[in-house]
TrEMBL record:
It holds the Pfam family Pyr_redox_2. This is NAD(P)/FAD-dependent oxidoreductase. Its cofactor is FAD. Belongs to the class-I pyridine nucleotide-disulfide oxidoreductase family. It comes from Agromyces humatus. Residues 6-323 form the FAD/NAD(P)-binding domain. Residues 479-510 are annotated as: Disordered. It comes from the Bacteria. Keywords: FAD, Flavoprotein, NAD.
Length: 510
């Protein structure tokens, strides 16, 4: 069977949905191919369930941090109610609603495994039915996502390890959980399960959250220990197995062991390109797909002469975050439509059809204890990139809005400023409920707002956003001597700890 359509999208997660939606809204005929649940990893096994698992315990901790409400909290967390709420938010792992949305906007769904079969051709393998070949008149967009990596640790694969899917879809939480890894998934799931009252042990080969400023990871280590979790930094796992009692035995390089009921592996991601048929268009299976800023695949057969193949989301390895993938998808869907319909194409930096922000303005939220958020450069990354930087740090506990939010509030904020351009190029916030501070920083970076102009963006009193005023004061008022402090110079109100480490672990946010 063979059909010709305008656009074929392989992968029905949030990224693929957005590509399809933008192309269909322009009037193109779009077929979306998905073999699992429409809505993808984020909706059923990552972002949505993980945040619902985290929220109840976070709300309980917040209540206990305020005199008056603290005295009213007399019970413990109802884990069964948390899991029931999680089930509601993942629609009991049914995609009926998502499929209904596709139908409502005129996007056709083909259930099955989609793989490339040459230029503009996608074969859909369907259970119990003859395969269908879709031929795209204009474009194919692949957004298959990524899978967790199980590292080659002796005995690990045979020990029935959990991945993030197991952790977020749990029905009966174990009594003891060991977590191998130090990235976002490790930090968030350690926070969630420790919040359940479970015995959690985190085994991180290096620091936690090493793609952020060092103080973020340090704060999460302290926060997890405050929840009763054990965090072992610098621990290398040399072997994993199960004993006769079906307990997991994790052996470390110092000869010590950790005993748990389950072990969660959170050590990175790999692209779902092994069975995608990329070899049929000159690409290497099992590897990340290279793209330009319009998500056009570089090196694919026929793509240079007449653009047709796009790779969007995790699979291009630019930013393994749902919101960044959807950002790419909006630009890509619009670009496919513009090229198909002969409309103007805008591929200049910050143009309508490019994902420029993937390079310098990627916001990330880690819903750990405490929350850690960042966007843009860390201080160290900016210096490695050859930028002359000025750094301002503020203790959030000194901000009146934070003190009202929670008694004895603890947190920290950092701005990284390009000393020559006079604009913010990085920001990090650590503390309770700091996620809501991130968009302002993202706007400042994307808009290249001069720091001197930010003095006129007045934060409301009394809110945690007053941290912005404190950060500007740390940098120095416009025209004051402090504004002339060069990179490498240090004052009491500038950062004094070592440069951050930004090399990520390739791990997608849970």
């Amino acid at each position: 069977m063979e059909r010709e359509v305008d656009v074929v999208v392989v992968g029905g997660g949030p990224v693929g949905e957005n590509v399809a939606d933008r192309a269909r809204a322009a009037g193109l005929e779009v077929v979306l191919v998905e073999h699992q649940l429409v809505g993808g990893e984020c909706s059923y096994w990552a972002c949505v369930p993980s945040k619902t698992l985290l929220r109840s315990a976070a709300a309980l901790r917040a209540a206990k941090r305020v005199a008056g409400s603290a005295e009213a909290v007399t019970g413990t967390l109802d884990v069964a109610a948390v899991l029931k709420r999680r089930d509601y938010w993942v629609s009991d792992w049914s995609d009926t609603g998502a499929v209904g949305w596709l139908e409502s906007v005129g996007i056709e769904l083909e259930r099955g495994h989609g793989r490339l079969a040459g230029e503009r051709r996608v074969i859909v393998g369907r259970d119990g039915t003859e395969p269908l070949t879709l031929v795209a008149r204009h474009a194919v967009a692949v957004s298959p996502g990524s899978d967790p990596v199980i590292p080659p640790i002796p005995g690990l694969a045979g020990a029935r390890p959990w991945t993030s899917r197991d952790a977020t879809s749990v029905r009966h939480p174990p009594r003891r959980l060991a977590i191998i890894g130090g990235g976002v998934v490790a930090a968030e799931m350690a926070t969630a399960y420790a919040g359940f009252g479970i015995e959690v042990t985190v085994l991180a080969r290096s620091s936690l959250l090493r793609n952020m400023e060092p103080f973020a990871g340090d704060a999460v280590v302290a926060g997890l220990r405050g929840l009763g979790a054990s965090v072992r930094v610098g621990a290398s796992v040399t072997g994993v197995g199960r004993n006769d009692a079906d307990e997991v035995i994790v052996t470390l390089d110092d000869g010590s062991t950790v005993i748990a009921d389950e072990v969660l592996v959170a050590t990175g991601r790999r692209p779902r390109t092994t069975a995608l048929g990329v070899e049929s268009v000159g690409l290497e299976p099992g590897t990340w797909i290279d793209v330009d800023d319009t998500m056009l695949v570089t090196g694919a057969t026929g793509n240079a002469e007449r653009p047709w193949l796009y790779a969007v989301g995790d699979v291009n390895h630019r930013a393994l975050l749902t919101h960044q993938g959807k950002y790419q998808a909006r630009a890509t869907g619009d670009l496919i439509a513009a090229r198909a319909l002969g409309r103007p194409v805008d591929t200049a930096p910050w143009g309508a059809h490019v994902a420029t922000a993937d390079h310098s303005a990627v916001p990330e939220v880690v819903f750990a204890e405490p929350e850690c958020v960042s966007v843009g450069f860390t201080a160290a990354a900016a210096e490695r990139a050859g930028r002359s930087v000025r750094v301002a740090d503020v203790e959030l506990g000194a901000v009146s809005g934070a003190g009202i939010l929670a008694d004895d509030y603890e947190g920290r904020a950092r701005l990284v400023v390009d000393a020559h351009a006079g604009t913010v190029i990085g920001a990090t916030f650590v503390g309770q409920d700091v996620a809501e501070l991130l968009q302002a920083a993202t706007i400042a970076i994307v808009g290249e707002v001069p720091v001197d102009r930010l003095w006129h963006a007045v934060p409301a009193f009394p809110t945690v956003s007053e941290a912005w005023l404190r950060l500007l004061e740390a940098l120095g008022r416009p025209g004051s001597p402090a504004t002339q402090v060069a990179s490498g110079d240090r004052r009491d109100d500038l950062a004094t700890d070592g440069p951050g480490v930004t090399a990520g672990d390739g791990e997608a946010a849970a």
